[in-house]
Amino acid sequence: MASPILNIDSPVDEQILECLNLEAPKSFFLFAGAGSGKTRSLVTALAKIRENSGQFFRLNRKKVAVITYTNAACDEIIHRIDYDPLFSVSTIHSFVWELIKNYQHDIREWLRIDLKNEIAELELAATTGRAGTKAAIDREEKIKSKTKRLSTLDEIRSFTYSPTGQNRTRDSLNHAEMIKMAADFLLNKPLMQEILVSKFPILFIDESQDTKKELIEALFAIERLHKGKLTLGLFGDTMQRIYSDGKPDLGIDLSEDWIKPVKQLNHRCPKRVIELINKIRLQTDKQSQQPREGQEEGIIRLFIISNQATDRSLLERNIGDQMAQVTGDEAWHGEQADVKKLTLEHHMAARRMGFMGIFEPLSQVESIRTSLIDGSLSGLRYFTQLIMPLVAAHQKGDHFTVARIVKQNSPLFNGQLLKESKDQPALLKNANDGVTGFMKLWEDGNDPTLLEIIKIIVGNGLFVTPEPLSIIAKRHIKNELSNADAENPEVVIAAEDEEEDEPDTVIDAWETALNSSFSQIKNYDAYIANKSPFGTHQGVKGLEFPRVMVILDDEEARGFLFSYEKLFGVKALTTADLNNIRDGRDTTVLRTMRLFYVACSRAEKSLAVVAYTENPEALKNHVLKEEWFSKEEITVM
Question: Kind of pairing, strands 28-32 and 262-263?
C-alpha cells in the first residue's frame, strides 16, 4: 500500500488534467514552492495532452504553448518532451515576437506614434531647460536620433527582432519597445487575440511570478474575453518572485472559476532546511511544505560575524572547515571546496568579482535594473557580445574571426553602401583603419575605459552604438573638439557646478559606468554566464546544490532594495517601510525575505548561513525568538 505522504501531491496533477479538457477548458494557477517538482508537473501535463489530444492538435494544426523565463529552462523542457513539435516552448520575448512579427504595418505605425510622442516630450522639455547644459546637449542628440529614426520608418521593408541579439540595425526593435508593443497589440487587436486562442488553445507560463506584469495582465484579459476557448496555466510561487517587473499579486485576484492546486511536498531539501524555509515564509502567505518520506535530516548552521571583520575569504574558508567537521562531509574543505556560495545581492558579487564600477550606477535606475541583472541590457550586450569577442580574436591573432565580426556588424560593410560606392577599396581601407586604430587601445597591456572604447567607435563609425552610449560619446567628442579649438567651439558645456535641468537618469548612470575599465565587462560577463564561484538568487533559481553557503552582508552589498539587518531585527524599520506595510506594498523586508527563502531552499544536504552584522548579539536574539535556528546551531565568531 502506497504511503499517504508519497501520494499527497497526486491530486494536483489530476486537477491540472481536468483543466485540459478541450470541451470544457479551465484555467489554473499551480502554487509550487521550492523543490516541489513544478517542472515535473508541467511535463506530466504535456505528456497527458499528447496522449489524450495529440491527434486533434496535429490534424487541426494547433499547438500547446509553453513560456519559460530562460533559454536554459526552454532546453530542459524540450529535452523532457523528446523535442515533439506539438509543443511550442520558448521564452516570453520569443513567443510574443512570433505573434506580432507579421503585423509589419502595425509595428511601423506604433513606432511612428511612439517616436512622435517621445520627440514632442523632449522638445517640450527643451523649452523650459537651459541651453548649454549637459542635459540640454543630450536632449538635442536624442531628438536628432529619434527624428532620424522616424524619417526612415517608411524605408524599412521589414522590422526584425532577436530575443538574444543586439538589435542594433535600424530595422530592429529593442527589447523594451517590443514588449510594450506586444502587450498593446494583445490588448487592443481582436484579430491577434483570435489567432492566439485558435493556434494555442492551451498556454502554460512557467515562473509566472516573474513574467512581465503588462504581458501577464494582457493574457488575463484575453482569457476573460475568450472564456471556454483557452486554458491559461500558470506555474509558480510568489515567494520566489525575484524581478521587480513581475506581477506582485499574482494568484490573489483570480476569478472564482480558476483552479488553484497546491503542491505540498519538497523533494529537494532535507527536513531541517524545510523546517527553516517554512519558518521564513510564515510571515508572508503561511504556505508550508512537507518533506518526502525517507528524506534525510540535514544540517544547518548560522555563523554570525562582526561586519568589522577584514579577511572575509579566510573566515569563510574556516567556516567551510567547521561545516566539514559538523557534517562529516569533506567536500566542505579547502580552496576548491565543492560549495555553492550565494551572495544573494548582486552588489556583493560585483564587489568581490570586480565589476562594481559598472554595476552600481546602473542598478540605481529602476527602468533598466532587471535587464542589468538578467544580462539583457543592450548597452552591456554591446560589449559582451561584440567588443569582447572582437578584442579576444585580435589578441589571439585570429584575423579571420576579426574580419567576420566586423563584416557582420559594421555599417562600413553595409551591402547597399558597397554596391553604390565608386571606391570600394577605400571603404574597405576605412574599415581596416578603424579596427587598427580601435585595437591600439589595448597595446602594451592597457585596460581602456569603456568611454575610451565608445569614443573611438563612434568617432570612426566602426559599429552602430546603442543610443545612451552614442549620446555620451558624441558629447565628449564635441567637448574635446571645442576645448582644442576655442576659436570655433562647436559646443560649450555648462560648468559642472551649474544646476542642470531635469537630468536623464539612464544617461547619467551610463556616464558613470563608462568610466569603468574593460576588464570589468569581462568580470560581469563571467558572473552573468554563471561562470563565477558566486551565485545569486536570480542565477540559481530552480537549481540545487548539495552544500550551500549563504552570505549575508548589507555593508558589502550596498543595496537599497534589500536589508538583512532589518530582516534579522538588527535595524529598525523606517517610516517608508511602515507606510509600505500599511498600504500593502512591497517592502525592503519582504524583498529580502524572498531572497533568503530562495537561497536557503537550494540546499540538498547541508546549509551554512554566514551573517556579517553591526550587532551580533541582537541578530542572535532575533533568530532565536523567531525560532529559525536553535542555540546549538548558532556560532558567534
Answer: parallel
In the structure grid, which three cell numbers stand for residue 329, read together? 562531509
> How many helices (H) and strands (E) would you count in the chain?
29, 14
Cell representation of residue 441: 587601445
Q: Is 265 helix (H, G, I), strand (E, B) or coil?
A: strand
Cβ-contact 137, 472 below 8 angstroms? no
Percent of the chain whose pLDDT exceeds 70: 87
117: its cell numbers: 510622442
Residue type, 128: T
Beta strands in 525-591 (DSSP E): 534-536, 545-553
Q: CB of 589 within 8 A of CB of 283?
A: no
Q: Which residues of 75-114 are buried (b: 16+ CB within 10 A; e: fewer)?
A: ebbbebbeeeebbbbbbbbbbbbebbeebeebbeebbeeb
Q: Are 76 and 301 in contact (CB under 8 A)?
A: no
Continuous H helices in 491-615: 505-513, 518-528, 537-540, 554-557, 564-567, 575-582, 588-600
**Are 475 and 134 contacting, i.e. CB atoms less than 8 angstroms apart?**
yes
pTM exceeds 0.90 for this model: no
Rg (CA), the chain: 27
β-pair partners for 534: 341
pLDDT at 492 > cutoff 50: no
Q: Bridge partners of 549?
A: 341, 608
| SS percent in the chain: helix, strand, coil, step 5 | 55, 10, 30
All three cell numbers of 549, joined, read 553557503
> What pLDDT digit, counting tens, does each position of 361-380 carry?
898 887 888 788 778 888 89
Give the tens place of pLDDT for each residue, 277-324: 999 988 777 788 999 888 999 999 999 999 888 888 889 889 999 999
Q: What is the DSSP letter of 246?
A: B
Three-class SS state of 234: strand
Instruction: Place 55 in a pLDDT band, splitting at 50, 70 and 90.
Output: very high
